[in-house]
Structures are given as structure tokens and as C-alpha cells.
TrEMBL record, chain A:
Annotated InterPro entries: UBA, UBA-like_sf, UBC, UBCD4_UBA, UBQ-conjugating_AS, UBQ-conjugating_enzyme/RWD
Boundaries of every UBC core domain copy: 4-155
Species this protein is from: Amphimedon queenslandica (Sponge)
Gene3D superfamilies, A to Z: DNA helicase RuvA subunit, C-terminal domain, Ubiquitin Conjugating Enzyme
Classification of source organism: Eukaryota, Metazoa, Porifera, Demospongiae, Heteroscleromorpha
Catalytic residues of the enzyme: C93
Annotated protein name in UniProt: E2 ubiquitin-conjugating enzyme
PROSITE patterns in alphabetical order: UBA (PS50030), UBC_1 (PS00183), UBC_2 (PS50127)
Nucleotide-binding listed as a keyword: yes
GO molecular function, one term: ATP binding
Domain UBA: 160-202
The entry's keywords: ATP-binding, Nucleotide-binding, Transferase, Ubl conjugation pathway
UniProtKB/TrEMBL annotation, chain B:
Domain FANCL UBC-like: 105-194, 197-293
Domain of life, source organism: Eukaryota
Domain FANCL C-terminal: 303-369
Gene Ontology CC terms: Fanconi anaemia nuclear complex
Domain Fanconi anemia complex subunit FancL WD-repeat containing per the UniProt entry, residue ranges: 7-93
Protein name (record): RING-type domain-containing protein
CDD domains per record: DRWD-C_FANCL, DRWD-N_FANCL, ELF_FANCL, RING-CH-C4HC3_FANCL
InterPro entries recorded: Fancl (IPR026848), FANCL_C (IPR026850), FANCL_d2 (IPR043898), FANCL_d3 (IPR044037), FANCL_d3_sf (IPR043003), FancL_WD-rpt_cont_dom (IPR019162), UBQ-conjugating_enzyme/RWD (IPR016135), Znf_RING/FYVE/PHD (IPR013083)
Protein's GO biological process: interstrand cross-link repair; protein monoubiquitination
Length: 202, 376
């Protein structure tokens, strides 16, 4: 007997592939292993007029046995600087992936909702408190940081070349800190080099 | 580990660890007063699911046909002691099965002469033990029937067990002087009586769109037929009185269902004319023409459930049997899918045997009957 979650995933896979959004290459879904349809790879493109514009974001999608009565488990694989997404684990805070899930939703609507989340953050319901604080307190710095992360991790086109940022990261690199750690520390401390160094060495 | 050794000893006192890590055991397992040599080797991580089993030729003989079951038991086992308990039970079953004596020679001679009486050409199957036979018959309507007869070892002291695909169970009159040919004659009589019943259903199958069952067998007594999209009528025909008014249950949006029900109650019994066919009567009473497969396309009536996104339910094979009452929405669902969804929500209210929730698409209030786990 075919189980419901697998039959539905097959159908939804076809739906995403033939969707308008996929044709405009805004979203994508891939099967990792033909024999295990509960693990999928999703892709969303950073929407225009956001710091994420043009970035390619890879998502890890897990389908529970109880799908569609419970939501799929989705998290970011690509690192991202966003109030509702953990900059460390990639966990997403999105109502439809939690209590607002409805069995009528599909992988296509989930991917589109995540894309919409990139467009309109919800700083009052944050996943990453540090990012949310920055988003509210210093929106300009938030945009700069988010853009830098998008260019570094998501392959967004380099429109600005921030020499100041690179110089600060280089300084930390010379202290023997890995690049990822350096970027995380600097982003967390509003690109204040001293504060970042303090946090790394205490 | 010490705990597990104690338990192993408790189940099989003669099975002892053969190495210090207790990854291998050898000794004897005792079932039904017989001891068999047995050796069990666990992989390095001690995972019982991948244990290797060696045994003597007698035990091997017993297990040879049951390897698949044994593998399954091994995969399902929690630990070694619980597997050994399972293993002993399985062995016990296998041994008692094989211990059954063969029937006396006159069983076979009687069987052969009785089959001869029926005619070998009508015998479509006989098993290697000469216990299960199948007789194939054609009825006047061109339908093919298969009568399966299981003969106990003590036949003809014990009666044979008959099985056939019929709307009601086939229970032939039997005494020790009844031959198999008599049973076949009784069966022929029974299928003759059902001819009108099957004719009624055949007419529905041919002239209307049947949503359920997806591939009806000769035993099914109901058809769910399309009235128009989102509205259908489940008709259950009485096998013994097929020409009488059947039990009708309309399925669809509440308002439309009410209209159909009103027509059924107000005109049903008075206007039913036993000289007309069931289909004609239904069309008459409901003042509708059921869409015909000749002039309409099946795609027009194939609805997808808003939860599983399929037409046929993944378990029971039924077409969607619930429709949202909001006319702008009219989203079809399988009752069972909707039920499962509502029970997974904390906001669902439960009262008077109904679950109350909202349509997933338009948030209109909806309710489904609480389901009693079916025995099917």
C-alpha cells in the first residue's frame, strides 16, 4: 500500500516542476535519493529589492511520516542574515511551518512563503534575536550585513565592494580565526572589531 | 548485558554464550519435547537485527519454508531474549502444522469420483494436497463465477467449507450423503437467483458514472453514482429484492443533499414502479438525468481531495465524499482525510458525535461525524 506522504510528495514534486515560479527559476525542488522521497533539496532565489537579491538559497526539506497532517521540516543550508532565520543553524521561524500549517498547503506554497519571508521580515517574532535587534535598531547596518552574507554565501552579484568589511575580516583571519567565525562575530557586534575580538577571545 | 544473559537462559536454558563478549551463543533450543542444536552469532555491535543463525539439519528442515517470516521476526525483535521467545513460538506453530496426519486413502478415491461427477473441465484449480479445489461456472448473463471448496481431512465426516464472491455468503445445505456435485448444483441455483440483482448493477455501471467502488466485484451491493459534479448518490441494492427501491444516500453540499433527500422521501415509495428499471425509477423520482458515460467525460467528475490531492483515497480507494458547503468554495475532501486533519488540530471542537472545524481553503465552518474504527 502506497503511503500518503510519499504519494503526495511525488505529486507536489511535479507541481513545483511545472509551476510558473519554477519556470521563472524562482523556486526549485530536487530529489536527493530516488529511493527516499522524504529528504528533498529546495532552492529559492532572493527576491528583488531586498539584500538577498539574486542569491541562491538551498533548503533542507524533510517530510515526516505524518505529512500532510504535520508540516514538513525545512531549514536553510545556505547561511543567511535574517531576523527570522538562525544565522547559526538555519532554523526558520515561520508560522505555516508551525501552528499555522494546513494540510492543504504544499511544498510549492512553503517555498513561496519562505521567499515572501525574505521580502518581509517579522522582527517581532524573531528566530535570531541578534539579527532582529540590528534590524530594528540600525536598519542600514542590517541591510549592509545581510547583503554581505548574500554575496559571500548565496552567490548574489557583487554590486558593492566593501573594502572596510573585508579589511576587518582579514584582521581577524590573521589572528587565526576562521573566516566563518570571523564574519559571524563581526556581524553580531555591528562590525565593531574590538567587540568582536573580545567575544572571540573571552 | 548480564541482565540479557539471564533472560536468554530463562528462555533457552541450554543456550550458552560461546565467547567472552557474548556476541555468540551456542547450545540447544527445546520445543515440543525435541531439542535442536542452534548457534547464534551477533555482529560486533551486538545488533540482534543482523544476527546469523546456524542450526542442525532437522531444525533447518522445519525452517526451510519459513525463512522470510524468520527474517521479519529478527528485524522486529527488540533484543535477543525477545527474539528467542518469538522463535520458539514460530517453531511450535510450524511443528504442529507439519504434524497433521494425511487423510485415509478413501478420501482421495471419493474426491476423484466426486470431481468426475462435476466434470474435470469445470475444475479450474486443485492444490498439491488435494484439499482446495476451485470450480468455474458461467451464468446466463455471461458472468464468470468461481466456487472455492476447502475439504477438511476428515471429509466427508466434516462438511466442506465453500467460498464464492456473492453479495451474501454461500452456505449450502450439507449432510454426509451430499456430494460435491450437489453443492455445485446448489451454487448454480443461487447464482440464478442473483441474476436480476447483478443486472440492476450492470445497468448502473453501463449507464452512469460510478465513483465507488473503483472496480466492483460481484459481491458489492452498492454503487455511488454521479448526479452532477460534487453531487453523487450512493445506492445500495438489496440482493434478494433488487427491483425494490434501494437504500439511497446522497453525498455533496448540505443544501443540495437536502433537496435530493426531500425528493426521495416525498416521492420515493409512491412513485416507485417495479416494472421500470431501478435507474429509470431513480431518474424519475429525483427529476434528474444521470450523466452518461457516452455523452460526458470522466474527467468532469474526477475530483481531487483538498488534503491528499488524489481522487482515490490511499487506503480505502474511495472517491472524495465530502464537499465544503460554501458555494464559492465547494472543495471536495475524503471524509477520512478531513477527519484525520481535524483530529490533528487542537482548535477542533468535539461534541454530539461530530468534529467541528474549518474548511482548509475558505475557513467556512465544517463538521464531520466522529468515526468508529472500522473492522474492515
Amino acid at each position: 500500500m502506497a503511503s500518503l506522504h510519499i504519494t503526495r510528495v511525488k505529486r507536489e514534486f511535479r507541481e513545483v516542476v511545472s509551476s510558473e515560479e519554477a519556470q521563472k527559476s524562482q523556486i526549485k525542488i530536487e530529489i536527493i535519493d530516488e529511493s527516499d522521497l522524504t529528504k528533498l533539496k529546495g532552492t529559492v532565489i532572493g527576491p528583488p529589492d531586498t539584500p538577498f537579491e539574486g542569491g541562491t538559497y538551498i533548503l533542507d526539506i524533510r517530510i515526516p511520516d505524518t505529512y500532510p497532517f504535520n508540516p514538513p521540516k525545512v531549514k536553510f543550508v545556505t547561511k543567511i542574515w535574517h531576523p527570522n532565520i538562525s544565522s547559526v543553524t538555519g532554523a526558520i521561524c515561520l508560522d505555516i511551518l508551525k501552528d499555522q500549517w494546513a494540510a492543504a498547503m504544499t511544498l510549492r506554497t512553503v517555498l513561496l512563503s519562505i521567499q515572501a519571508l525574505l521580502q518581509a521580515a517579522e522582527p517581532d517574532d524573531p528566530q535570531d534575536a541578534v539579527v532582529a535587534k540590528q534590524y530594528k535598531g540600525d536598519p542600514e547596518l542590517y541591510r549592509k550585513t545581510a547583503k554581505h552574507w548574500a554575496q559571500t554565501y548565496a552567490g548574489a552579484p557583487k554590486t558593492t565592494d566593501d573594502a572596510e568589511i573585508s579589511a576587518k575580516i582579514d584582521t581577524l583571519l590573521q589572528m587565526g580565526i576562521t573566516e566563518t567565525k570571523a564574519r559571524e562575530a563581526l556581524s553580531t557586534h555591528s562590525w565593531n572589531l574590538e567587540a568582536a575580538v573580545d567575544s572571540l577571545f573571552t | 548485558m548480564a541482565e540479557s544473559l539471564k533472560e536468554v537462559q530463562h528462555v533457552c536454558p541450554l543456550l550458552l554464550p560461546a565467547d567472552t563478549k557474548r556476541l555468540s551463543y551456542s547450545g540447544f533450543i527445546r520445543v515440543k519435547d525435541k531439542s535442536f542444536y542452534l548457534k547464534i552469532s551477533l555482529p560486533d555491535d551486538g545488533d540482534v537485527h543482523y544476527a546469523k543463525i546456524d542450526c542442525d539439519w532437522q531444525l533447518r528442515n522445519y525452517l526451510s519454508k519459513h525463512q522470510a517470516v524468520l527474517k521479519k521476526k529478527l528485524l522486529l525483535a527488540r533484543d535477543l531474549p525477545s527474539f528467542l521467545i518469538d522463535f520458539k513460538m514460530l517453531l511450535n506453530q510450524i511443528m504442529s502444522l507439519q504434524a497433521q496426519p494425511l487423510p485415509p486413502p478413501n478420501y482421495y478415491s471419493r474426491l476423484i469420483s466426486e470431481i468426475e461427477e462435476i466434470g474435470w473441465n469445470r475444475l479450474s484449480h486443485i492444490d498439491t494436497k488435494f484439499q482446495d479445489i476451485q470450480i468455474t461456472l458461467n451464468d446466463t448473463g455471461g458472468r464468470v463465477h468461481v466456487l472455492s471448496i476447502h475439504l477438511p481431512y476428515k471429509y466427508p465426516i466434516e462438511p466442506p467449507v465453500c467460498n464464492a464472491v456473492l453479495p451474501l455468503a454461500f452456505q449450502p445445505n450439507w449432510s454426509s450423503s451430499t456430494t460435491l456435485a450437489d453443492i455445485v448444483r446448489q451454487f448454480e441455483k443461487v447464482i440464478l437467483e442473483y441474476q436480476r440483482f447483478w443486472d440492476v448493477l450492470d445497468e448502473l455501471d453501463k449507464k452512469t458514472w460510478v465513483l465507488d467502488p473503483s472496480s466492483p466485484s460481484l459481491s458489492s451491493t452498492y454503487r455511488r453514482i454521479v448526479i452532477r459534479s460534487h453531487l453523487s448518490l450512493q445506492v445500495t441494492i438489496d440482493p434478494l429484492h433488487p427491483q425494490l427501491m434501494p437504500e439511497c444516500t446522497p453525498l455533496g453540499p448540505t443544501e443540495e443533499v437536502k433537496v435530493i433527500k426531500d425528493r426521495l422521501y416525498s416521492r420515493g415509495q409512491q412513485c416507485w414502479n417495479t416494472r421500470c428499471s431501478v435507474l429509470e425509477n431513480l431518474q424519475n423520482i429525483l427529476s434528474v438525468n444521470f450523466p452518461s458515460p457516452i455523452s460526458t467525460k470522466e474527467e468532469d467528475y474526477i475530483m481531487e481531495c483538498g488534503i491528499c490531492y488524489t481522487h482515490r483515497h490511499y487506503e480505502n480507494g474511495r472517491a472524495p465524499d465530502f464537499t465544503c458547503d460554501n458555494k464559492q468554495c465547494s472543495q471536495p475532501y475524503h471524509v477520512s482525510c478531513l477527519y484525520e486533519w481535524l483530529t490533528s488540530l487542537t482548535s477542533t471542537r468535539k461534541s454530539f458525535g461530530f468534529l467541528f472545524g474549518e474548511c482548509l481553503y475558505c475557513n467556512e465552518a465544517i463538521s464531520v461525524k466522529l468515526m468508529v474504527p472500522s473492522v474492515e
